[in-house]
């Protein structure tokens, strides 16, 4: 009886109820991946472990969730690398304008050693364990007003995700970067609180931003990575098997996110081109002045940038 009781108690100690937070709403691919991750862990652990997913900033914005992760109050999160770069500036290298040419290069870069090596900084710099990367689509610009090229961004209140690399890029164009959470964007466009948005094709379609901003600049000017993380405090208390389970299951879903955006980027672009939207295109050369100003700021802040550029060159040459 005593031996049996010990076994029952051990099983109870090992069973874990995890929580995972993220900012995206339920229809978003990141949230769907989080739910699939939770289901996979439940199945592979025989129901021993559960993961409750909290989308739509239910646990706070990303800065607040990072604080919770650092104290161990939150177990895991899917975070934009944007928020990570606010705490570990070297991650800002992933937002170098025109670092990659297309979505396939973006996915390949995020799987490269150069990108995964960045994750090694997280335990000491942020108290997090980085498992791997996902992403959203490449960034475009939509506007309520005329938008034929970068010059038309001058003075526009342009919604951004709140982080320094993208803020510095748009400041260099003459725009007025306006941080705003994703759920607030549609109404802000409708009431004129903002003039334009930095967004990917997927979110533009999901949230129907084209209903409120019918001018688009297809620029593909920046990638937008996401990182799956585990609280460092939680990680140190996990067994070797538990760590392997979480890493393996989370990486499967993060890779699926990369593949999702690779598969749909061109299709989503064509869908938007078929709508009643005025579309212009912009290239690296059109943003040359803004890029030069950005490089002047971030070449020192993000020392991993040359290594990432070398990796991209190797991807292009393969």
- The radius of gyration is 21 Å
Task: Please give the domain count.
Answer: 2
Q: What's the total number of strands? A: 11
CATH domain fold name of the largest domain: D-Maltodextrin-Binding Protein, domain 2
CATH class annotation of the largest domain: Alpha Beta
User: Under the CATH scheme, which architecture of the largest domain would be assigned?
Assistant: 3-Layer(aba) Sandwich
First-residue to last-residue Cα separation: 63 Å
Task: List the helices and strands in order.
Answer: HEHEHEHHHHEEEHEHEHEEHHEHH
**Unreliable sequence segments:** 5-13
Structure description:
The chain is α/β, with parallel strands linked by helices and 318 residues long. It folds into two domains: 159 residues, D-Maltodextrin-Binding Protein, domain 2 (3-Layer(aba) Sandwich), CATH 3.40.190; 114 residues, D-Maltodextrin-Binding Protein, domain 2 (3-Layer(aba) Sandwich). It has 14 helices and eleven strands. A six-stranded mixed beta sheet has the order 7-6-8-5-9-11. Strand 1, helix 2 and strand 2 form a beta-alpha-beta unit. Helix 2 packs antiparallel against helix 12 and helix 8 runs antiparallel to helix 13. The chain starts with a helix and ends with a helix. About 3% of the residues have low confidence.
